[in-house]
Amino acid sequence: MERKLIKFVLLAGGLAVSSSLWAAPSTPAMLSNTCSACHGQFGQAVGPSIPTLAGQPASYIADAMKQFKSGERTGSVMGRVAKAYTDDDFNAMGEFFSQKKFVRYPQKVDAAKVAKGKELHEQNCKKCHTEGGRESEDGGVIAGQWSEYLHITMDDFASKKRAMPKKMAEKFEGLSKDDRDALVNFYASQQ
Amino acid sequence: AGAPFITSAAEMLPKKGRRVVVIGGGYGGSIVAKYIRINDPSIEVVMIERDKKFVSCPFSNTVIGGFRDIKDNTITYENLAANNGIKVVYDEVTAVDTSAKKVVVSGGTISYDRLVLSPGIDFRFEEIEGYDPVATPKVIPHAWKAGEQTLLLRKQLVDLPKGGTVVMSIPVTPFRCPPGPYERISMMAWHLKNHNPTAKIIVLDANPDIVSKGPLFKKAWAKHYEGMIDYRPGNKVTKVDNKKRSVDTGVEEIKGDLVNLVPPQKAGMIAHKAGVVGEDKKWCPVNQLSFESTLAKDVHIIGDSCMAGAMPKSGYSANSQAKVCATNIVQLMNGQDLIDPSHTNVCYSYVTENEAISVAAVYKVAEGKTIAVANSGGVSPDLSELEAIYARSWIKNILHEMSS
Lengths: 191, 404
Ligand SMILES: Cc1cc2nc3c(=O)[nH]c(=O)nc-3n(C[C@H](O)[C@H](O)[C@H](O)COP(=O)(O)OP(=O)(O)OC[C@H]3O[C@@H](n4cnc5c(N)ncnc54)[C@H](O)[C@@H]3O)c2cc1C
Known about the structure:
The complex is a heterodimer. By secondary structure, chain A is mainly alpha-helical. Helices cover about 45% and strands about 5% of the residues of chain A.
C-alpha cells in the first residue's frame, strides 16, 4: 500500500489539536473494522444471516467486492457499500479478513437432511468446495456459513440472479429446492 | 475547558501506567474501550457506566411494535470486561476536571492520560413550556432512551382505547437516529392495524418533511397503513400539558389518548459539565481524524454528542467512530502518525414486522471534514423482506461486539 502522507488541514480555532498534523493512509484494519458492525467482529458473524467473512480467501472477498461494485453481483446492501472503495481497498480488506479465524457456531439442522446433503455434496460439489466446503480458493468457505445466507444465495443462483461458473451450474441446475435445503443443512452442520 | 474544582475525594484506582478513561458504555463507549485494548493491551482502560444493563435504542421500535422482547435488546458487561481486560466501574460521572485530568464519581476520583466521552444525548426540555423533566415522561413518554420508557410506550399503545388517537411529536434536526421517529410511527401503526384498526396517529413534525428515507416511508404508509397516519410537517410543539395529555404548536392545541413527545436534544450532560460543548451550546466540536475535542486537550468525544460532519447520529456511526478514535488514540499515545479514517453507516428501519428499508453511506475525511464518499451509498430501492432478515443479523452482530 502507498505510504504517501496526506496533509491534514487544521480547523480554524483548533487550538488544542494534537501535535500530529499528518494522517497516514488507511490501513487494512481501518478499512475493515467498520464492516464488522454488520459482519461481526473481525468478520466473525454471530448469525443468523449476514455471512461470515473471517477465514474466507482474500481473493474471494476482493472478487466479491468487485462484483458488487460493478453490479455484476446483486445484493441488498453490498452494492451501495462497495461503490465507495478502490480495488486496492478490496485487496486490503481481503487480506485482513482472510487472516482471521472462521468461527463455526452450532446451527439448528435436521439429521436426515444433513445425511442427504452430504451425499449430494460428494456427488456434485466436492471437486471445487473441498474438505466438506471448508476450502475453496475461488468458491469461498461454505462449511459453517450461516444457513439463512446459504439459502438466500443458493436461491439467487437457482433464479440466475447470481452468476456461477459453468461447471457449477451444470451440477446445480439438476437440484430441486429440497436438494438445496439438504445441502444447506449439511454445510450448516459442519463444525 | 471544564472548571477546575477542588476535591478532597481520594483517587479510586491509583494509576500505574498509561490510562484511558471512557465515560459511557453504549454504542460508542463499549467499542472504544475494547478497540484501545485490542490495538495496544499495554494501555489500561477504565470504562465508567452508570447502569449495569444497557438497553439498546436500535430495535426498541420493534419492541413497541410488539414482536421483539426487550431482553434481546439488553446487554451486560461481564464478558467485555473479562475478555478484554477492561476495568468497568458502575457509577455516574458527576464532574470532569480537564486541567487536573480527573473525573469524579460517587466513590472518588479517577485520573486519566486521555479521556473519551460517549455519553449519548440529553434533552432540551426547557424549549417546551410545561415540560417537567421528572413528571412529564411518566405520562407522556419520549422513549428516546431505551428501557422503562420503551415499555411504558408499549403499554400505553396496547391500552389505547378503541379508535383512540396517538399524537407523536418530532423535534427539529439534528437528533439521534434521523429515521427513528418514522420507524416508530410505522411500528405503532403496525400494532394498531392488527389490534385497533380504527385508531389514528397524528404526527407533528417540526421539520419541513420526513428527515430520512422519506419516499420509502411514505410508500410503506400508503401500502400498509392507508388512512391511519395523519402526517403534518412544519408543526413544532412548543408547549405540553401533562394533565390534559395535550401538546401545543402555538397555532393549535392537540389532545391525544397517547402522546409520544420526543424533545429536542443536545450532547449528554457530562459533556456540558466538562466544557467541551461548542458555541451552539448543543454539540461537541472535534478534530475529525482523532475525535479529540477542539476545546480541551486529551479529551475525545464520539457518538451522538460529537459533531462528525456528514455522519448521522446513529449507533452504527458511534461504533465506527469508536474504532477510528481508538486507533488514533493509540497512535497518539505511542507518538505515531494519525491514520486516515474510514467509516460506514447503515441504518435499517422496520416498516412492518417483515419488511424493512435501509440507508447506507461510507465516509472519509477530506480537508478536515467528514464527508460521504461520492457515488456510493443511498437508500434501498424498495421495502423488502430481505432487508428485514439482514437487519436482525446486524443487531445481533453489533450487540455481540459491544458485549464480548
Ligand atoms: C428509537 C430509536 C431507534 C434507533 N435505531 C437505531 C438503529 O436502528 N440504528 C442505529 O445505528 N442507531 C439507532 N438509534 C440511535 C442510537 O441509539 C444512538 O445513536 C447511539 O446509542 C449513540 O451511541 P452513544 O455511545 O453516543 O450513546 P449511548 O448508546 O446512548 O450510550 C451512552 C451511555 O453513556 C452512559 N452515560 C451517560 N452519561 C454518563 C455519566 N455521566 N456517567 C456514567 N455513564 C453515563 C449512559 O448510561 C449510556 O449507557 C436509535 C435511537 C432511537 C432513540
